[in-house]
Here is the input.
Amino acid sequence: MKLKPWQWILFAMIAALVVGSVINRSCVVERDPDLVFSAAGARWVAVFDYAGTIFMNLLKMVIVPLVFTSIVVGIAGLGKTEGFARLGGKTIAYYACSSLVAILIGLTLVNVFQPGTQDGNPNQTIRKQIESNEERYVGAVKGKLGDQSLGDMSAVTQLFMRMVPRNVFEAFGANNKMLALIFVSLLTGIGLIFISSEGRSPVLSFFKGLNELTLLITNWVMWLAPIGVFALVAETTAQTGLEIVKLLGKYFLVVIAALLTHMLVVMPLVLRFFAKVPPRKHFYAMGNAILTAFSTASSSATLPVTMRALQNNVGASKRVSSFVLPLGATVNMDGTALYECVAVMFVAQVLGVEMALSTQFTVVMLALLTSIGVAGVPSASLVAITIIVYNIEIPNPEAVIGLLLAVDRPLDMTRTAVNVFSDSCGAVVVARSEGEELFQGE
Here is the structure.
């Protein structure tokens, strides 16, 4: 029986979980204070890291040409700026609403299950773990943040500054500055609408050809997806310490439950009632993208896969997918916003800080803003959590945040899958509102 691409990826992921777990159990010689592998274990982790990095680099390699050409061709194909404004308004409205719903789901579950408490009081087991390793946890947070000041809101306020590059070639740089790339792409596409047909025709034909070439290379890269996914997931599983997962088990489960509620309950309802498409078909169509997002933990790296799945499997037009998806990969972070809210509330519960309704409302608003504003910086969720806890004046939160880093990778993988699936649902909603017929090949 011939396996479909998503089935190969799923098989690779399951195999990686098994192999990674075996390495974690047999090759770790010291778990406290740091995870230390035997020579054999270290070699296996290095091999997984090498293969996974190559796969990630291949995906990232096609991001810039794919996003640029897709947006330019899509916008220029609109033929008028009114169509662009309408498309943009629908997209932003969906992103704002979906992120807000995700945050409220996280806020509800973290208040109901209180993962940071024990018998109504701050969890003393977690407090003792933090106190005995406080210096290490605080150092881990500062190491991740780098030059980002604790609690500095500039990551949010600099959003529009990052959008406009100092020169056009910065947008195409190695750092994949997605906001700047989208801005330059939009300007180019809109500009092509207004120039003469003699000037537009050769330029647009070039971009269309480059877009087709980039999609072809993306198809070639995806042949290596099972190998890349295996390496990435095996490396993560091998390095996950089981003891710390047990300590944070309730917090871990609350985050996972909230993410799955948004992905498996809210998004299917959106698909059913707003897009008028069968949720089961859409899940099936986006299987490759969801699994790739989970294994890479990168919305941007998954973007080529998401665009291909939406166009080939769902039947959405390039006009819609090339505008909605790149923008979503940059600013629509449902899973991230939800996670930030739960993490901040957990920190407050562990430290015994009472959170009034007004303060919780502030957390919701800051989570919504920071999920957009810091998405383009390294360790984005960590930066966002730090910004929020300092702006609601939770005292000395660094050690608790540092503890959360122990389980951040699997949660990062899950929330990225939610981010990507929400982007795809948004594209379907917008496509349907534009009168497009979807799943015609079914």
User: Anything to note?
Assistant: Strands lie at 28-30, 36-37, 117-118, 121-122. Residues 5-433 form a domain with the Proton glutamate symport protein fold (CATH 1.10.3860.10). The two ends are 21 Å apart (CA to CA).
